[in-house]
Design brief:
alpha/beta
């Protein structure tokens, strides 16, 4: 039998790491004693109440593809402490004829021992719910005593012995400047652009996050302006989860939040904070308006340099790079293009193609190019498929080497991660090439295209339907010139 072994620990503390190793050794022995085969070890360091676990999701996906015959776990709670998730895993296993065995003897569908499944699922969820309520009670008690229990201190502060302390760097001055700029009439995005332009560190950069961006965003400015901690009050319990099985957060009414006044030094005066809240509410009411109109080339125009979409700007009567418009020249340049001029270029291209398609010589040339492209694509497709097959065989061999102890887990993980990354790229290429290979009736396609173009040429304007039918995307260069990629042409038709 091919065994999928699922191992979960709640934290990455040292004692939990030892538990992880002990579980692995136990399952190696079980598999060896039964003369089974290891398909894969799925390991997560995460709470059992959530299904947002990378390797659990991988296990479920592999189960749906019947890549193994049995799931091994220490106990049902390792798979899930959530009744709904427990039943989902059970149903997926049953539908795909996969057995579930727990080493504590509670569940063993191979031997028909599954009568107590529902009881164990309920019991583990209730245990998690009680633990969650105890933790919330402890945190609530500490919050009422004025201890900061958040995972991340507000921008401008640091935490010392459970208390918020004003940071010794320049971030408190940034907070003061944000409030001052807003009271001077600047909007969220305008303030964000100014801070980005002047190189102030973002909240994520201050926290040292690996994926921290260098650009400030209007949403970050709004959160800072709305945070009551800046007046020196500790306000906690502003959000909560519905239950231990739901990670959806809900806002708690203000009268039920835990507010302890004057627990730490203020960065903003109460008068300024109150004025900002009133100003924000007033702006919110003024800005209430219908959803913005979607313009003709929305989602078709892209900046050549940064890859971001171009945004329509009314006073320009055209489009500019979204990165530039939001963050300024620090992020990109304008890459602007007038909508009227772009319409004229595309209509001229389509009319020219309508005339060109009447010429048999051009049609034959297009057919020849399409045939050559299909041959090249098929050759590439076969080469990629051979590489995919080889990688899959190598992965199977690696699992067997791991089971026999010939290679270490670190070597196995490194090799499989590399293989998976390459497989993902190869499969994406294969999908694209297969689509090209399937389009083998070029002559008929050109005839249909000719009829469509002639039909649309009865119109004097470029309609959204024409844009959708004929255009794949449009790249805009820094000087305003464009590369227009038409859906029916193998390569880009360049237009000035």
């Amino acid at each position: 039998m091919r065994c999928a072994v699922y191992i979960r620990v709640s934290t990455d503390k040292e004692e939990q790491k030892q538990s992880l190793e002990n579980q692995k050794n136990m399952f190696y022995q079980i598999i060896e004693d039964r003369d089974w085969e290891v398909y894969k070890f799925y390991v997560d360091v995460e709470s059992g109440t959530t299904d947002k676990r990378e390797n659990l999701q991988c296990l479920i996906e592999d189960a749906e593809q019947r890549k193994f015959d049995v799931i091994l776990a220490k106990e049902l709670s390792r798979l899930a402490r959530n009744g709904g998730l427990s039943y989902r895993i059970r149903d997926i296993a049953e539908q795909n004829r996969i057995h579930i065995i727990t080493s504590d003897g509670a569940i063993n569908t191979l031997e028909g021992n599954a009568n107590m499944f529902g009881l164990y699922a309920w019991m583990y969820e209730q245990e998690s719910q009680r633990t969650s309520e105890r933790i919330k009670a402890v945190l609530s008690s500490k919050a009422r005593k004025g201890e900061f229990k958040g995972s991340v201190p507000p921008y401008g502060y640091r935490v010392e012995n459970g208390k918020l302390i004003i940071a010794e760097d320049d971030t408190p001055n940034v907070v003061r400047r944000i409030f001052r700029m807003y009271l001077e009439g600047k909007g969220f995005d305008a303030i964000a652009r100014a801070l980005t332009r002047e190189g102030y560190p973002t909240p994520a950069q201050v926290l040292g996050k690996k994926n921290a961006g260098q650009f400030w965003h209007g949403s970050s400015i709004k959160r800072i302006l709305s945070n009551p901690h800046y007046v020196g009050d500790l306000v906690q319990g502003r959000q909560t989860t519905r239950s231990v099985t739901s990670k959806t957060r809900e806002d708690v009414p203000k009268d039920k939040q835990i507010v302890v006044p004057n627990t730490h030094p203020a960065i903003i005066s109460r008068e300024d904070f109150k004025a900002v809240q009133q100003y924000m509410e007033g702006r919110k009411q003024q800005q209430a308006k219908p959803k913005a109109k979607k313009h003709l080339f929305t989602n078709y125009l892209y900046c050549v340099d940064c890859g971001k979409s171009l945004w329509y700007v009314h006073y320009r009567k055209g489009y500019v790079c979204g990165n530039y418009y939001k963050h300024g020249k620090h992020a990109c340049s304008q890459h602007s293009v007038k909508e009227k001029e772009l319409i004229e270029v595309i209509l001229a291209d389509i009319r020219n193609m309508a005339e060109t398609l009447n010429e048999n010589e051009v049609m034959g040339r297009l057919e020849a190019k399409a045939l050559q492209a299909r041959k090249q694509a098929e050759k590439q497709r076969q080469s990629i498929q051979r590489r995919i097959d080889k990688l899959k065989k190598e992965k199977t061999g690696l699992i067997r080497l791991l089971a026999s102890g010939t290679i270490s887990e670190a070597d196995y993980k490194e090799a499989t991660e590399s293989s998976n990354a390459e497989l993902t790229i190869l499969q994406e290429k294969l999908q694209a090439l297969s689509a090209l290979h399937g389009d083998n009736d070029t002559a008929e396609s050109i005839v249909r295209l000719k009829k469509e173009i002639q039909q649309f040429m009865k119109l004097d304007v470029l309609t959204p339907e024409m844009v959708h039918r004929f255009i794949d995307k449009i790249d805009v260069k820094a000087d305003g010139s464009v590369n227009i990629y038409y859906k029916f042409i193998p390569t880009a038709l360049l237009s000035a």
